[in-house]
Structure formats: C-alpha cells, structure tokens
Amino acid sequence: MTAASPTLSKSGGAPLAEWLRDATPAFLFALRLWASVCLTYYVTFALQLSDPTWAVTTAAIVCTPVLGASLRKAFFRMIGTVLGAIGIVILAAFFRQDRIGFLVGLALWCAVSALVATLLRNFAAYAAALSGYTAAILASDVLGPVGTTSGDVTFLAINRAIEICMGILCAGVVLALTDIGHSRRKLAAELASLSTAIMDGFADCFRIASPDVAQFQGLRRDLLRRIIALDPTIDAAIGEASDLRYRSPVLQRAVSGLVETISAWRKAAYEIALTHNPATEREARAVYNELPRDRLSPDASGSAKTPAELRAACCSAVRSLTRFNAQTPSERLLADSAAQGMLGMARALNGLVGVVDPPDMIPVRGMARLHVPDWLPPIITALRVLLAVGAISLFWIASAWPNGALAITFCAIIVVLLPLQGDLAYAASMTFLKGCVLGAGVAAVLVFAILPRATTFPTLCLALGLALVPMGFLLARAKNPLFFFAASVNFLPMLSINNTISFDGSQFWNTASAILVGIAVGAVAMLILPPLSPAIRTNRLLALTLADLRRLAKRAPSRRREDDWESRIVARFLAMPEQAEPVERAMLVAAMAVGNHIVRIRRVAPRFVPGVAVDTALQALAEGRSGEAAERLKDIDRQLAALPRTRPGSRAVLGLRAGLLVICGQLAWYPSYYDEPIR
Amino acid sequence: MRFNEINVFGLYVAPITVIMAVAWVAYVVVRRVGDRFGLTQRVWHPALFELALYVMIVSSIVLLIARWSR
Description:
The structure holds 2 protein chains of 2 kinds.
Chain A: H1 4-46, H2 53-62, H3 67-94, H4 99-119, H5 122-143, H6 153-178, H7 183-208, H8 217-228, H9 230-240, H10 248-274, H11 278-288, H12 307-322, H13 329-356, H14 376-399, H15 404-417, H16 425-450, H17 457-477, H18 482-495, H19 505-528, H20 534-555, H21 559-575, H22 582-604, H23 611-622, H24 626-641, H25 650-669, H26 671-674
Chain B: E1 6-8, E2 11-13, H1 15-36, H2 46-68
Antiparallel strand pairs in B: 1-2
Helix pairs in contact in B: 1-2
C-alpha cells in the first residue's frame, strides 16, 4: 500500500501538472488580451476620444497568441486603416449629399479591396481587406442613422484612424512588454529541419536509385505541405524582428529554393525509375558521390556544419556537378538535376543564414514579383462583395432602419475578410455568426447585470476581465479559434462603453441586432455565391499552366516572360487547393520542368540543329499533339547524337539531349494532359 | 510650454499626431541604420527594443518642441 501510494498520487497529479503547463501560455494570452483592452479604454478615456469602441475592438483583434503575428497584423492593420480612411474621404468628396452614389462607391471600394486581398497573401492580404472594411466602418459614422453624408468626413476619418491606431499601439505595448516571442527561433528550426529532410531524401534518391517511382512520393508531398506552411511562420518572424523585413527577398528565395530542390528530386527519381538498369544505378551513384555528406542538426545549433558552411558546400557541389563529365544524356540529366537541387538547397540555406547569422548572408536584390495564379477567384470575391453590400444598402434605404449603417459595416467585414479562408469561407462565416451570438449573450449579461454596478475604472476592468479572460483562454486553446475570436472581438462594440456610461436597453438590442444581421447577410452572400470548388480551381490552374506552356512552346512573347516561367508556376503550385490530388500537383511540377527545358532548347538547340526542326517539334506540342512532338524531339535527339564528340560545345549538346529526354519522358507520362484540346 | 493644434491643409489636428508621424519616419531611418551595423542582432528582445526606441524618439521630439517654444 505504501509503495502504491506515490504511484497513485503521481498518476493523479501528473496529468493535472501537464495540463497546467500546457494551459499556461493560453492563460497568459488571455491576460494580455484583457490588459490590452483595459489599457486602450484607459488611454482613450484619458485623451477623451469621441468613441473608444473601435479602439478597443482593434486592440482585441490585434492580439493573437503569437507575438510576431500580432505585431505584423498590427502593422498591416495600421496601413489598411490609413488607406481606408483616405478612401472614404475621396468617396465623400465625389458624392457629397448623394447617398446612393456614396453607397455604390462604398460597395465598389470594398469590392476592389476584396479583390486585392485575394491576390495577396498573409497579412498583406489582411491590410487590403482592412482598407475595405475600414471605409465601411467610417461610412457608418458618416452616414449616421438617416443616411445623409455629413460634411465633416475628413475630421471623422482622422478621428477614427487615430482611435484605431491607438488600439493598435496599446495592444502593441502590452504584447511587447509581456511576451518575448519565439517566431524567429521557430522559423530557423523549421527551415533547418526542412533543409535536412529534403537533403537526406534528395541524396537517398541517388544512393538507392530505386526503380519504384512512388518510393519517395509520400515524403515529397509531406515536405511540400510543410514548405507551403512556412509562409505564415516567415510573416510572424518578420513581425517580431524587423531586421528580417529587409531580408524578405532572401526568405522568399529560400522557399522557392526548397520547391526547386523537390522539383529536381522528382525529375531525378522519374529518370532513374524510367530507365532503370545497372548503368543508371552506376550513374546515379557517381552523381551521389558529388553531393555533400554534411548535414545541419534539426535546430540549427551545435551542428557539425553551420548553415553558411553547408551553403558553401552546396555551391561547390553545384560547380562540380556542372563540370561533371557525363557520358550519356541520362547521366547528364541526373547531374543537372542534382546541380539544380543543390542550387535550390544553397538558396534555402542562405535564407536560414539570414535568420540565424545575418552578417554571413548573401544579399538578394530586387523585389518578389506578384504572380496571379488565377483571376477568377478574386473576381468572384469582388462580385460577392458588390452584391452583398449593395443588397444590404438597398434594404437599409427601403426600410429606413436606424442601425442599417452598422449592419452594412459588419456585412462588409464578413464578405471582405472571410473569403481569405478559401474553401472554408461559408463555414467560417457561420462560425463567426455563432461566435457573435455568444458575444451578444455575454455582452447582455455584462450590460444589464454587471456593468451598472461598476462605477469606477478598476471595477470596469474587473467586469471586462470576467468575460475577456475566459474567452481569450478558450481562443488560444480551441482547435477552431474563429468562434471565440468572433465572440471576444464582437462583444466589445455591443457594450458601447463611453466616457459617460449609460445603459440603454433599446440601444443595446439595436446595436447587437444590427451586428448580427450584417454578419448573417454576409454569410448568406457566401452561400449564394460560394468560392470555386477545389476541383474547379485545380482544373483551372492546370489548364492555365497548359495554356502558358503552349504559348511558351509557340514562341515566347518576351525574354522576361521566359525567365518568369518558374516563379509563375511556383505561384500556381502554392495556390493549389489542399484537396488537390497528388497526381495533379505532379502534373504542375512536370509542366514546370518541361517549360524550363523548352526555354533552354529554344535558346541553345539552333546552334547545332536547324531552327525549323525545333520550331516544328515545339509547334506540335503547342497544338496539343504530344505524340508527334515527342517523335520530332527524338529526331532532334538523333541529329544531336550524330554530331562528332570532338566538336566544340559537346557538353552543351549532352545537356540538350538530357532536356529532350525530360520532355519526352514527361509527355509520355501524362499524354492526356498535354493533348487536352484548347478551350 | 504650449502645444498648439497644427494646420494640415486647412484641418486642425492634434500636435501629437504629427509628432508621432514624424517620429515614425525617424524611427524607420534609425532602425535601418541599426540593422546596417548589426545592432538589431545583438538585442535580447527586438520588439521591446523597437518600442522603446520609438518612445524615445517621440519623447525627444516633444522635449525639443517644448524647449524651442519656450
């Protein structure tokens, strides 16, 4: 019994201790959220700002459980707010005393913001969405209950912008003072772990030289998912440490470097599997011997090689693989794939150096270009915003509902912001609505039962804490935080706390019902005009890529567009829905490889074979006759093989033959895709 | 010491708004210079450091204006 007692007490206490350890960050976040809201109330009361509602709502919105994400969100929220304020001033100047014109202008402004938000990613998208619904927030003040555009719009816009910025600043102060943040370390660890895993898999592909093409497919898919998930981590790290902002191009190059390595890995795996024989195995091993053996440790510290040293090793491998004395096109192809993979890896490691050891980083000049994977989804989003905001505005005009302007604001928030959730937009809007109902309930309890007894600022803070701390805790712990986010953010405007507190039941219900109706209309708009299904989006992305490939095969319009090819396809790859089949992703990567080799063949082949032969082969590919294209390319390969090996440029010839091998291999692998009729 | 409202294109705004905007520009420049010389990598808590830096710049501008307007 005595021996059993400690065991019993341990088994009972351990889960509780573990739960407490796990729950501590969530509890700290809840306290930070509460402190941010209270500080904002205090500052806005002290400065006697006209309406603290938007300041405190902003403070609650900006707070997220990750410090870097919060600060980044705050920065972009400030930009979005200023743009929205400028927008509403311009609208008011154009449509002075013209309510209909003003509302049409507002709907258009929100639609354009939503379109831009869908084109951008992460918090930049958030800023664009914000510029839309900040204009709607200001519009509700400008229009007032009867909808006459008042003359002091500029004054209102400055006031609201200051209030929102005050909320951002207060939340920023609380978060910076109470949270150390670990986004930079997390990014470094994830980059290091991804680089190591990709390098291991890449090297194993050459070492094992397996005839089974599916051997590494699962691993590559998994790694690609992790690469896509790097984006928000990078954003959070930039928010936490501003020096990383100046290294943003290096980090973007690191991500595309990882994708390039996986693409090269796939190319090599297919070549090995397709032409599997003892000679291929020997060639693969010969290439493997040129690859660096060193690795990073998963957390990029205490490793055998620092990221900078490993980057240098990768660069040296690229040089030796480029000079590699290949005897056959297949061997050349493997060496080229390995060189491409190592180049991508060097870029990825340079990104890691930028995070852990910036002085050793090789700077990258230029800005990342924005490539639009597909115009249709943003256009649908913009159309939905236009219709939803237009419909609720008409309803407001027809019904003369005093709180209609507030309903327009919340409808705009839903239709502008939630499409960023992609396929989950409708489900997210319903969750948001449910969260808002919870928020309304909490606000009702506070307004009618607790706040009338809170006569001083400390008691007001305590009363707010009763609601904010549990909701913040649940927000940080929940699997789907949107529900508690909606509840904790939306109950603040329903409280309508001002310097001189008054508790008016009818005002509360009017405000709460306007917010709920606005959100419900937004959700209905999402249901009536839903985003494109994942299957349609995937098909469109593949069709657009094929159309681009055919244009590239016909005659590229400009050198710049040719050079852009890879980044355009990477943008499409990142836009692929989660539900896309592995084979569809593989088709996209295959098209990228084919496009790369088309560019190279078009530039180099006319030095060795008649240009007409190249044009005819590529024309067949452009017209969707992949079988004929493959035959003509094989003809070119035969002509190249017949050239004397002593002739200058024999290495380039071998490289060209390797490229032809890749194109023919991919055309044979997915003939139905390349032969699809042009729509 | 008096801080009068500032006329921005015919609109009177609180002086702290303009001071904060000017301080932001100065802060971006100082942060860039700090990054150039590797200062930001030596900081334990970058977010807190940057907040403190911004507060110092705002305070310095307020004190300078107070001294000049005396």
